[in-house]
Amino acid sequence: MNTNELAAHWMPFTPNKGFKAKPRMLTGAKGMYWTTDDARQVLDMTAGLWCCNAGHGHPHIAEAIARQARELDYAPCFGFGHPLSFELSERLARLAPGNLNKVFYTNSGSESVETAMKMALAYHHARGLGSKQLFIGRDRGYHGVNFGGISVGGLTNNYKAFGQWIPNDHLSHTQDLERNAFSRGLPLHGGVEKANELEKLIQRHDASRIAAVIIEPITGAGGVLPPPAGYLKRIREICDQHGILLIFDEVICGFGRTGDVFASQTFDVVPDIMTTAKGLTNGAAPMGAVLAGDHIHDAVVDTAGAGVEFFHGYTYSAHPLACAAAMATLDVYEQEGLYYRGAADGEIARYLEQGLHSLKGLPGVVDIRNYSLIAAVEFEPMAGKPGATGGLIQTDAWEQGMMLRSLGDAIAMSPPLIIGKEHIDQTIGILERSIRQHFG
Ligand SMILES: Cc1ncc(COP(=O)(O)O)c(C=O)c1O
Questions:
Q1: Ligand 1 pocket member 215 (CB < 6 A)
Q2: Which cofactor does it need (predicted)?
Q3: Strands 288-293 and 374-379
Q4: N or C end: fewer C-beta atoms under 10 angstroms in the chain?
């Protein structure tokens, strides 16, 4: 395609001028590989955008979507229903931990976050605690692009252009290169100490004003930061002591990424509300789901009078094609054992860990971190150009036939859960060449 043909699409989260000068065009995908417009096979070490956990082009999912499109293409979900969304909800409730038994559908991770935040407000309001309006997020957290999500998220680029519109404060991030660099699995130091910061924020704002804490169990887009040991449990304890809800944003972590269905199960901490998207449909149809505890749902729904209890929803909530994609995706995860395949102490996660940590000692590498099938390598910032190295390594890897995510001075990996040892060998080879080329 020539430059004129590319002009009309204003691309999201993309340097548009750079892309249009040198497009990276994907035309097909199967299993672990993309096909490009110049007929190259490119290894997908990112599961798309952390979503194609079962690999690309799975026939069971493709057929389910096609069948559903012929049978019931659309159904309004305000005051009407279709059976598949109820079946899917039952299934998700069975998979979820604790009392997360109520499922509310959205079309994306960002919408799941807004929905979860509104649920928290509605819950407190229903209990006569309408002053609880403030949310606590975490530096380097990413919770999507809508106004709630950018307020609780911790990426300053979001604040610069758009501001912060929801009352908020932030925990500090959990990266500690001095004590935890080159951690294999959960970092060992500082978990409880870091979580105790929440007490200071509660003293500052008072629990009577705080609706919820929202965090990703593993920070993803902010740099892949597995929680230091003990951190999540301590956050849960403090929330409980002060009547503050805990929201886990599992948009990346859900559906096998941490070696269990949800990270909440991996880390044995049950939130009050959990957001999901991405892996729910293996990326094959836009869909998110918010799983709410019975106590959240019952407080909102049972205490309301006749009529709509939760004044919220999307035209495409529980879209039939997305429900069909999700049902088929869950079949595949179950049948192919994918929820547990990436367990941190399992063979494939260990193989990735060993391969990546063999890069320690290469010039420019300041950290390598991993948990299950999610990992990052961090580089020394370039003089005068902090945050640019990840993009250079990403471009080089792309040219060598591999897709990575760049996150500032780091690159991140979150491969499809079907990854084999041969793909890991390929990855380590490409990375080593890129790093040597870049840092000399
Ligand atoms: C943890 C988390 N929450 C929310 C989102 C936003 O999801 P979406 O891009 O589907 O709106 C993302 C996207 O990467 C995410 O990683």
A1: no
A2: pyridoxal 5'-phosphate
A3: unpaired
A4: C
